[in-house]
Amino acid sequence: MNTQASGKDGMPSNTLELNSAAIKYLSETRKWTTFFAILGIIGSVFMVIAGLVFIIVLPHYNNMENIPYSVGFIGYIYLIMSVLMILPVVYLLQFGTKLNKALKNNDQYMLGVAFHNLALHYRVIGIYTIVSIAVYLIAIAVLVVFGAGMAGVFQTL
Fold first, then answer.
1. Is the whole-model pTM more than 0.85?
2. 89 near 42, Cβ under 8 Å?
3. How many CA atoms lie within 13 A of 53 on its CB side?
């Protein structure tokens, strides 16, 4: 696959050539990313089903009066997590689909679109990771402050 991007004057500004080994590895990568994307979609569907069970069915069978929250609360958390999980999975599936088209048709533009979807996938995963780390750090800080308060560190004698 010989790929070229044209400059303003129609002359190639950059040239990228993919040898048969690179095409083979991209084809293999496409298969694995599509596999993981399908697993992600299936996992997200199971999370939606579990969330709906927690919201609709389990409150009718809840005999645990000693828990401070409704069982439906866990269901809403499952639904939120499934919605958050589906976005990077869709980008990963789009990467696999577009990469397949690019490799079959020897299409430079489609290859760029495929890698754009892969970049979006990793951007979303990166944002989720940063938010998760921030939430953990805030939770640790809150637990330290409350733990110190419970231990009486802030009490004056």
1. no
2. no
3. 6
